[in-house]
Amino acid sequence: PKEGSNWFVDAMCVLKTAQHKEEAEAWINFIASTESNLANMDYIGYASPNLEALEGYPAYYEETYGEPLNEERYEIMAAPDDVLARCELYTNLPADTLTLYNDLWTELGI
Which SS3 state, helix, strand or coil, does residue 4 take? Predict the structure, then answer.
C-alpha cells in the first residue's frame, strides 16, 4: 500500500550446542545457494538476500515458464528502495506487551 507495510527478515542459525552442527551448517549453505534461492523465490514469492538470485530471478522465471516475469510481480517480490523506505521493520515488543498478547490469544482459545 502507498502508506507502507511491514518488512521482515527470516533467519537461520546453528546453536553452539547442536548435536548435528556439521549437517546444520551444510543445510544453511545449501539453502543459501543461488540455485536454492531461485527455487525458493519461485515457490514462496518472496525476495532473496542472495543478490545473484535476486537479480537473476526474471531470467530464471522466463526460462522456467517460457514467458517474461510480470514487472509488477517482481517489484512486489523485490521491492525497490523507495518502497522499502515506507516500510517498518518488526521489532521486539516489551515483555508486558508480549504477555498481554499471549493472554489474549489464550483467551481466544488459539
Answer: coil
Distance CA 52, CA 25 (A): 21
pTM for this structure?
0.71
**What is the maximum span of the chain, computed from C-alpha positions, in angstroms?**
52
The total number of residues shown for the chain amounts to: 110
Contacts of 56 (CB under 8 A, 6+ apart): 34, 38
C-alpha cell at 105: 490469544
- SS3 (DSSP) at 78: coil
Alpha carbon distance 36, 34 (integer Å): 6
Per-residue confidence (pLDDT) for residue 92, from 0 to 100: 83
Per-residue cell: 13: 542459525
Residue 25 has which C-alpha cell? 551448517
Q: Which residues of the chain have pLDDT under 50?
A: none
Helical H runs in the chain? Answer: 21-31, 34-44, 51-65, 71-77, 81-84, 95-108
